[in-house]
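Example 3.2
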Amino acid sequence: MIEATALMKYYGQVRAVHDVSFSVDKGEIVGLLGPNGAGKTTILKILTGYHYPTAGVAMVNGYDVSANPVAVKSCIGYLPENAPLYDDLTVREYLDFIADARKLTGHDRVNAITRVLKLCGLETQIDRPIDQLSKGFRQRVGLAQAILHDPDILILDEPTTGLDPNQIQEIRRLIRTLGSDKTVILSTHILQEVEAMCDRVLILNDGEIAASGTTEEIGRELKGEKVFTVRIAGGSLSDGARQALEGVGHLVTEPIGPKLRIALAEGRGGEDLFRWAVDNGLIIGALIPERYSLEDIFTSLTAAGTTGAAEEALP
């Protein structure tokens, strides 16, 4: 649905995006994660035809954004960081205006407005002026205009910025609902946002993709190993057992009583630990694979600036 190839964007002499390539398939929710100034908004503006790339190609729903910007705009719903609202209109008037812009008429128009009002929880706000709405409801109106024409693709820029915790939860649930049958790409610098909503993440730093995939995939790619927490039932490690453990993996921390953390090279798993325990007369009471922390990965990639330096920074 979305295919970016070697995207470059310069503003004068300032490089905003450098050699960025990625794809997003139908039914995926993909997050662009990165610190402020990493290039997230620029990439979304290129995908929507708001800005043209300096070099590279962006394809959306089979259309080249640079060659067919109107066709691209017809099949996407876009919510910029600051929702494009007219404060002097009521919610009803605003959605009528958007329906006109989208050339919706007759029953299609009525059904579309009814659908988005219900989906976005705006039925009780329909005759209120937009300037009297809370930030949460304004954001819902912004989402309503983005999905009014039932697009296949949603592009959302910082969709929960400025919302309180309850409003954030509501918007996240709505985006997850929308993502069940649409392609969604969103930008954020909030780690919890990615974990709560996204199937996959692209981590950006200084205009480049520093890593892509699920949290686990990125962690394994950087470290090339899995980490397990192991609890030995009824005792701690002997010197012999510790030496034998070196043939399986390496200790991440020194054992605390019967508990230890061990890193296994790619291709080795829990069965190797069970075999080691049996060979050394030990009983494993618990074997828990550890999830890679998105916070650790994000900090390593964006602070160190290079994958090599990031490898050393990861636990």
